[in-house]
Design brief:
The complex is a heterodimer of chains A (365) and B (345).
Chain A lengths: L3 E10 L2 E11 L4 E5 L6 H9 L6 E6 L2 E2 L10 E4 L11 H11 L4 H14 L15 H13 L5 E5 L7 H18 L2 E6 L2 H7 L2 E6 L2 E6 L1 H6 L4 H6 L6 E9 L5 E4 L2 E4 L7 E10 L4 E3 L6 E9 L3 E8 L2 E8 L9 E6 L5 E4 L18
Parallel strand pairs in A: 3-8, 3-9, 6-7, 7-8
Antiparallel strand pairs in A: 1-2, 1-4, 4-5, 9-10, 11-14, 12-13, 14-20, 15-19, 16-17, 16-19, 17-18
Chain B lengths: L1 E12 L2 E12 L3 E5 L6 H9 L6 E6 L2 E2 L10 E4 L11 H6 L11 H14 L15 H13 L5 E5 L7 H18 L3 E5 L2 H7 L2 E6 L2 E6 L1 H6 L4 H6 L6 E4 L14 E4 L4 E5 L6 E8 L6 E6 L2 E6 L11 E6 L3 E3 L16
Parallel strand pairs in B: 3-8, 3-9, 6-7, 7-8
Antiparallel strand pairs in B: 1-2, 1-4, 4-5, 9-10, 11-12, 12-18, 13-17, 14-15, 14-17, 15-16
The chains are: A alpha+beta (365), B alpha+beta (345).
């Protein structure tokens, strides 16, 4: 178990700045996810924590000790790449014990550690089996076993579930999180899949173009995205934005969309006339005949329990998550009701969220 | 008119029967999705239609012609694979034009230009035509790969998990686009996936496969609301359907031959513990943003249901459950009281 501190770390490859001043702290025993699109700098950040890349500037502390210049092998950290990379000619016992054999641990100790690890992963009955004949899930567990057998202070995982099909990914998410809790580890996990992040993380850092856009618990990030980038990256489907021209004064509790006042959380800033984006999540949109905010249904995606209905308005497209039992006809005109206490307002040019009653009190990081 | 038909097709590889007595008829302009886990026989089915495999038994009919004995080039099909395979040294334009320039076609270059332009516009990559294929993002490359199939106008497009190598956001975008393009062009598509969302949102009809056989064929709504078996029921829905032993319900409404009861979110009503109905305990509320899952303990069984956003439930809460119109399954896993409209395949 360890605390990992990343302080103002940058990394430049020739002329390309991959990481531009990233800071965060991962607490003892917590599960921290770095989430972002490909090319956002998340893997480079992880590789610097592992000691596989040297930062251009900044510091990395492991339990208070400055490890910035230490080689990977001198840090007590396990790095898990895509799982599944097993040695096919070895059995399960040999695969799990491999990292210990490389470090010349005594045989008896290897045996004990491997058996303990296998028990933890509930694969102790498979120890003498060849890995070739195992199911996908068991192979994953063996790969995990190889990572945890050394009992390092921290686990760094780079899209370990990327190659798996969606159903199996969901199952492994649950298992990974449970394992993390059981061995009391500190984990940093990298993914571009927001559902994986939401399902596993204690806290999420969302990266974009080498910088951290927001750090928070999954629910904070979902409910109070700091930027339009975050709002758009999280949620399936993501937040919808209505494009509005307006001026705002502190204390405003509504905004006009084409002359129709729409209630929203109290705004804590004065803003001159400009372009804003009113952000609403699909589950906070409903149809209301009486509403003057009108739109036309252009599509409905059936998902079983719910459906995602896309409505086009004069100010942009809105997606609504509605019960499948509601009959919706493509082409019909509908009135839209937006849940007032759940709306975000962004400065459309900077993409930053305005301070409001929804955001105050909930802003961390 | 049926564009493509498989008639009682079987295919074995050694001792493994990959496809068993498979019959399916796809109408002109229809989007059919084969859904199933890895190893269900989906890809083999596509390859049999393309002519990349020969069936042991049965026949393949395309546009009314029996093509079972024909080689792939003679069949009027286009195949899109999971991994985009573009020619890296060619531009996007030349990649798209490639299938049209085959000597067998002898197509006029101005016709090719028009066709490529059309498809590029459809896929929103017209501004990338002069780029090298390798200078594109993953999503753009996959669009070009789909575009290369679209420039031809075959009787049927066969697509093998074409979106699975893309990230979630891009997948969602291309899902909508592919459906739009299919509608606009009225093309016939047979699409293979293990992703239920892709199947639900794009298909006119879904064929659920397991162990080489077609288990049920129907519209997404039919498959979801009237699954013919517990297997099909468990393939669709997030969170997955809860399958619990019938004894736990002890209700007069449950038919006598029912062994398993299937409960989805819309079948479960949670109310305060003072109501009648089975008591359960809230074990855990999983916050996934929009989809918050409530994990309940009912006796020794776990139930997972979608949280009602206005209902504030906390771990440890005692609640009472009410079940409306759940799905019933017999000891073989077949649905009981099935109206038949779901269409057993």
């Amino acid at each position: 178990m360890a605390e990992i501190k990343v302080e103002q770390v940058t990394k430049t490859f020739e002329t390309f700045a991959a990481v531009k001043g990233v800071s965060f702290t991962v607490d003892h025993g917590s599960f921290f996810v770095i989430l972002g699109p490909s090319g956002c700098g998340k893997t480079t950040t992880l590789r610097m924590i592992a000691g596989l890349e040297l930062p251009t500037s900044g510091r990395i502390l492991l339990d208070g000790e400055n490890v910035t210049g230490l080689r990977a092998s001198a840090r007590d950290i396990a790095f898990v790449f895509q799982l599944f990379a097993l040695y096919p000619h070895m059995n399960v016992r040999q695969n799990i014990g491999f990292p210990l054999r490389c470090q010349n641990y005594p045989r008896a100790e290897i045996r004990r550690s491997v058996e303990e690890t296998a028990k933890l992963l509930r694969i102790d009955h498979l120890l003498e089996r060849r890995v070739g004949g195992l199911s996908g899930g068991d192979r994953q567990r063996v790969a995990l076993g190889r990572a945890i057998v050394r009992r390092p202070k921290a686990f760094l995982m780079d899209e370990p579930l990327g190659a798996l099909d969606s159903e199996f990914r969901r199952l492994m998410c649950g298992e990974l999180r449970e394992l993390h809790d059981r061995i009391d580890a500190t984990s940093i996990y990298i993914t571009h899949d927001q559902l994986e992040a939401m399902a596993m993380a204690d806290r999420i850092a969302i990266m974009n173009q080498g910088m951290v856009e927001q750090i928070g618990t999954p629910q904070e990030i979902y409910d109070r995205p700091n930027t339009m980038f975050v709002a758009d990256f999280i949620g399936a489907p993501p937040m919808s934005f209505l494009d509005i021209r307006a001026s705002l004064s502190r204390g405003a509790r509504s905004i006009e969309i084409d002359g129709v006042p729409v209630e929203m959380p109290e705004v804590f800033e004065d803003r001159a006339e400009g372009r804003f984006a009113l952000g609403v999540r699909p589950e906070n949109v409903s149809f209301a005949d009486s509403s003057q905010l009108r739109g036309r249904v252009i599509g409905a995606e059936y998902l079983g329990t719910t459906q995602i209905v896309t409505v086009t308005t004069a100010n942009g497209q809105i997606k609504a998550r509605l019960p499948s039992a509601n009959a919706v006809r493509v082409g019909e005109q509908v009135g839209l009701a937006l849940r007032p206490d759940r709306l975000s307002l962004f400065d459309a040019s900077s993409g930053q969220a305005l301070s409001s009653a929804l955001y105050a009190g909930g802003r961390h990081g | 008119m049926a564009d493509v038909a498989l008639v009682q097709v079987s295919k074995s590889f050694g001792a493994v029967e990959a496809v068993r007595g498979f019959s399916l008829s796809i109408a002109d302009g229809e989007f059919v999705v084969l859904l199933g886990p890895t190893g269900a026989g989906k890809t083999t089915t596509l390859r049999l239609i393309a002519g990349l495999e020969r069936p042991d038994r049965g026949s393949v009919v395309i546009k009314g012609r029996d093509v079972t004995e024909q080689v792939p080039a003679e069949r009027d099909v286009a195949f899109v694979f999971q991994q985009y395979s573009l020619y890296p040294h060619l531009t996007v334009y030349d990649n798209l034009a490639f299938p049209l320039r085959s000597p067998a076609r002898r197509m006029n270059e101005s016709v090719i230009r028009r066709r490529v332009q059309q498809v590029a516009e459809l896929l929103h990559i017209e501004h990338k035509l002069d780029n090298r294929a390798t200078a594109l993002s993953g999503g753009e490359m996959q669009r070009v790969a789909i575009g290369r199939a679209l420039v031809r106008e075959p009787a049927v497009y066969l697509m093998d998990e074409p979106l699975s190598s893309l990230d979630a956001k891009l997948r969602a975008e291309l899902r909508l686009e592919l459906k739009r393009i299919q509608r606009e062009l009225g093309t016939t598509i047979l699409y293979v996936t293990h992703d239920q969302i892709e199947a639900m949102t794009m298909a006119d009809r879904i064929g659920v496969m397991n162990e080489g056989a077609l288990i049920q064929l129907g519209t997404p709504r039919e498959i979801y609301e009237r699954p013919n078996s517990a297997y099909v029921a468990s393939r669709l829905g997030t969170p997955a359907i809860n399958l619990i032993p019938a004894e736990l319900l002890r209700s007069d409404a449950v038919p006598p031959n029912v062994r398993t009861v299937g409960l989805r979110t819309e079948h479960i009503r949670i109310s305060s513990a003072d109501r009648s109905g089975p008591l359960a305990q809230v074990h855990w509320v999983e916050h996934l943003g929009d989809q918050n899952h409530v994990h309940l303990k009912l006796a020794t069984h776990s139930l997972v249901t979608l949280a009602d956003p206005v209902q504030q439930l906390r771990a440890g809460d005692q609640v009472s459950l009410e079940f409306t119109d759940p799905l019933y399954f017999d000891s073989a896993g077949n649905r009981v009281g099935s109206d038949g409209a779901g269409g057993r395949a």
